[in-house]
């Protein structure tokens, strides 16, 4: 009897030990996965932090007057406006979309705002600018979600249409803004920080909350990851897309309001090529082109990075054509990193499954 | 042209299906051949409004424009049939035109054009490598290289205009052979070549297979990366050819030339009936599309419409053409 009991005990003890082992192993691999996930997240933010720090050091060491007050203010204003446009692009790209029309939308808004400010005053001008941004975004959203035109062609078309519209609106001549108050907006300082920079923090926080903590953010991610599954769970793809592109248009519009103030005189060709800068900062910031992974903070840091690069090249008197090359190379590099990350992730998943 | 077989033998059609079948037939016809009557009507209307349209000199203008757009559009047709796109063609044209203008004083015409085409093919190769190896979506990758190539063009010219000094070159690229402008002849050669590649070769079949489903094509043994790269190299070479011819026509080359050219090219391809979803390409439609846009821009110029309107018209026509295409796809998917 005893023998049998003992052997049964031994057996169950062995089973228990095995189960413990399995449990321990499971816990260990879970912890490992958590560490790996955290490392991956650090890597993702480092993806933009590392070049940020490198460029900052290079700028401080090699570029004369890099830390001068005027250059810092200049960089902060430019970075702020760029980041604002980048937030809209982040949402579009997180939906696995794209908005190539942001530059033209910003130019159209800036010129209409300038004319409105001259005619009716500052507050109507700003309101008209924001409204126009929303309308332009709604046109993009309508084409993409309603008429099912692929996003990049739809927004490539509206890039041309909006640019044509702004050139027609201005007749090719610059519009001077008379109001000194309005021209002062972009250089207004609150707590020592330029207003566009503060707005980029404030609106960035709002968009971050919108994306991370609200149902809208979930819908954006769902549409970006898998539209078919999103539809199956009852998400309105059309509504989400239209709202997303309207947000992108609104961001471009806010940018236009600020650009008009910053420049004081605007013409039909301002903000040409802005779309490339916006895409570059969004991807550099860690938002994946494959959708579903918005990184607002990354976009903001990357906007600072890009404006540092631009300011540095300007201060070093590098001809502006080299900035084209730098921008193109930066974009391809950041996209290459994005692609490599995705490939590495895929490898990881395959190994885990095997 | 893809045909849609009707599965009528096994089951009877509901009235609803009959209606959508008829709608599909109409839409299919619209896609394939609608350009021809549209072009005829456009010519009639424009000629009535502005008789100068039919003057010999102006017709030549239209044909030149159609040839430049068309040569590049042939390569773009290949790419779009493969579900790809190349936004950098304007940059390639600028670089190759500058290469021609810079080497012409030192060499003979054939060598200059050949060098330009080789440069274009290399730039196309860069696009192909970035898209297929680094796996960057083609429209972003080529948007990046567009800026890269334009930057290079500005750097090698130092932002200045490079004149084409050779009279012989100007004559060779803008002259007439039997009353037909040289660029048009080259366009027709490129057209036949593209048709042959797309419809009659392994590369063309692979391209269309990738356009329908890259995964299925890879599983079926199509060398996906190589096929994509060949498409980009051909497009780069064609764009360079067009750039070289354009340098002759303009008697100069500069970094800013052919700005926004990609838009007109894509519009010609899409309006011609090649689906942006990939999997099918019609070279003949592309030719008609290029002709249509050349007529349209020329008419806008003749009628004294501000050039700014051309942006608006071009963008709108493109969106309408694509919307018709996706409407057709909706009808198709409802049926199946």
Structure in words:
The complex is a heterodimer of chains A (354) and B (336). With 354 residues, chain A is mainly alpha-helical. Chain A has helices at residues 2-62, 69-94, 102-120, 122-146, 151-170, 180-184, 195-213, 215-225, 227-232, 237-263, 274-284, 296-315, 320-353, and strands at residues 175-176, 189-190, 193-194, 265-266. In chain A, strands 1-4 form a two-stranded antiparallel sheet. A two-stranded antiparallel ribbon of chain A has the order 2-3. In chain A, helix 2 crosses helix 11 (274-284), helix 7 (195-213) crosses helix 8 and helix 8 packs across helix 10. The longest helix of chain A is centred in the N-terminal third of the chain and has 61 residues, at 2-62. Chain B has 336 residues and is an all-alpha fold. Chain B is 74% helix and 2% strand. Chain B has 14 helices and four strands. Chain B has helices at 15-33, 35-49, 56-81, 89-103, 109-132, 138-157, 167-174, 182-200, 202-212, 214-219, 224-250, 261-271, 283-302, 307-335; strands spanning 162-163, 176-177, 180-181, 252-253. In chain B, the strands form two sheets. A two-stranded antiparallel ribbon of chain B has the order 1-4. Chain B has a two-stranded antiparallel sheet with strand order 2-3. The radius of gyration of chain B is 21 Å and the shape is globular. Mean pLDDT of chain B is 86; it is low at 1-11. At the A-B interface, helix 5, helix 11 and helix 13 of A face helix 6, helix 12 and helix 14 of B.
Strand content of chain B: under 5%
Number of helices of chain B: 14
What is the element string of chain B, with H for helices and E for strands? HHHHHHEHEEHHHHEHHH
Can you write the helix and strand succession of chain A as a string? Answer: HHHHHEHEEHHHHEHHH
DSSP E strands of chain B, number = 4
Helix content of chain B: over 70%
Strand order of the largest sheet of chain A: 1-4
Report the end-to-end length of chain B measured between terminal Cα atoms. 19 Å
Q: Structural class of the secondary elements of chain A?
A: mainly alpha
* Biggest β-sheet strands, sense, barrel of chain B: 2 strands, antiparallel
Helical proportion of chain A, percent range: over 70%
Query: Compute the gyration radius of chain B: what is it?
Result: 21 Å
Oligomer: heterodimer
Largest interface: A-B, 45 and 47 residues
Supply the number of helical segments of chain A.
Answer: 13
Unreliable runs of chain A? none
How would you describe the shape of chain A?
Answer: globular
Radius of gyration of chain A: 25 Å
């Amino acid at each position: 009897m005893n023998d049998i009991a003992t052997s049964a005990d031994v057996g169950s003890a062995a089973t228990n030990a095995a189960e413990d082992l399995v449990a321990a192993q499971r816990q260990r691999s879970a912890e490992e996965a958590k560490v790996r996930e955290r490392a991956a997240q650090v890597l993702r933010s480092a993806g933009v932090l590392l070049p940020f720090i490198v460029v900052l050091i290079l700028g401080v060491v090699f570029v004369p007057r890099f830390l001068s007050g005027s250059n810092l203010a200049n960089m902060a204003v430019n970075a702020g406006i760029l980041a604002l446009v980048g937030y809209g692009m982040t949402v579009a790209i997180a939906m696995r979309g794209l908005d190539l029309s942001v530059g033209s939308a910003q130019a159209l808004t800036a010129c209409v705002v300038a004319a409105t400010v001259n005619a009716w005053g500052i507050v109507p001008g700003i309101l008209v600018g924001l409204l126009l941004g929303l309308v332009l975004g709604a046109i993009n959203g309508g084409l993409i979600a309603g008429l099912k035109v692929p996003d990049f062609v739809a927004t490539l078309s509206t890039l041309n249409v909006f640019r044509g519209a702004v050139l027609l609106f201005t007749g090719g001549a610059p519009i001077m803004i008379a109001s000194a108050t309005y021209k002062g907006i972009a250089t207004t300082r609150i707590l020592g920080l330029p207003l566009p920079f503060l707005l980029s923090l404030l609106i960035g926080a709002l968009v971050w909350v919108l994306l991370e903590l609200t149902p809208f953010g979930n819908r954006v991610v769902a549409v970006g990851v898998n539209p078919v599954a999103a539809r199956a769970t009852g998400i309105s793809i059309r509504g989400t897309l239209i709202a997303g592109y309207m947000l992108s248009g609104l961001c471009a519009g806010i940018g236009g309001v600020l650009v008009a103030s910053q420049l004081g005189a605007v013409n039909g060709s301002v903000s040409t090529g802005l779309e490339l800068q916006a895409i570059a900062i969004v991807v550099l910031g860690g938002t994946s082109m494959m959708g579903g992974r918005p990184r607002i903070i990354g976009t903001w840091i990357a906007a600072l990075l890009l404006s540092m690069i631009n300011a540095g090249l300007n201060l070093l008197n590098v001809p502006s054509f080299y900035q084209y090359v730098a921008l193109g190379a930066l974009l391809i590099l950041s996209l290459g990193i994005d692609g490599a990350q995705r490939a590495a992730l895929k490898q990881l998943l395959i190994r885990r499954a095997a | 042209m893809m045909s849609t077989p009707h599965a009528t033998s096994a089951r009877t059609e509901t009235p609803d299906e009959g209606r959508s079948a008829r709608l599909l037939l109409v839409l299919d016809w619209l896609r394939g051949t609608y350009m021809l009557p549209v072009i005829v009507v456009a010519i009639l209307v424009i000629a009535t409004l502005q008789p100068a349209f039919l003057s010999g000199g102006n017709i030549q203008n239209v044909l030149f424009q159609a040839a430049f757009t068309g040569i590049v559009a042939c390569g773009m047709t290949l790419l779009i049939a493969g579900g790809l796109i190349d936004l950098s063609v304007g940059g390639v044209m600028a670089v190759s035109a500058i290469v021609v203008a810079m080497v012409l004083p030192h060499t003979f015409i054939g060598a200059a054009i050949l060098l330009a085409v080789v440069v274009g093919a290399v730039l196309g190769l860069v696009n192909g490598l970035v898209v297929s190896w680094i796996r960057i979506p083609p429209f972003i990758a080529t948007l990046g290289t567009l800026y890269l190539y334009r930057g290079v063009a500005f750097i090698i010219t130092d932002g200045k205009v490079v004149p084409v000094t050779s009279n012989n070159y100007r004559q060779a690229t803008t002259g007439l052979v039997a009353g037909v402008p040289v660029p048009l002849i080259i366009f027709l050669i490129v057209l036949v070549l593209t048709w042959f590649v797309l419809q009659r070769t392994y590369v063309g079949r692979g391209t269309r297979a990738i356009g329908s489903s890259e995964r299925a094509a890879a599983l079926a043994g199509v060398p996906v990366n190589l096929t994509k790269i060949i498409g980009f190299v051909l497009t780069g070479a064609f764009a360079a050819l067009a750039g070289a011819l354009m340098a002759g026509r303009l008697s100069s080359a500069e970094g800013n030339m052919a700005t926004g050219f990609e838009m007109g090219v894509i519009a010609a391809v899409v309006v011609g009936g090649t689906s942006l979803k990939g999997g099918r390409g019609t070279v003949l439609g592309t030719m008609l599309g290029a002709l249509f846009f050349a007529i349209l821009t020329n008419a806008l110029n003749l009628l004294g419409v501000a050039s700014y309107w051309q942006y608006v018209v071009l963008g709108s026509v493109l969106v309408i053409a694509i919307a018709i295409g996706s409407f057709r796809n909706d009808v198709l998917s409802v049926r199946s």
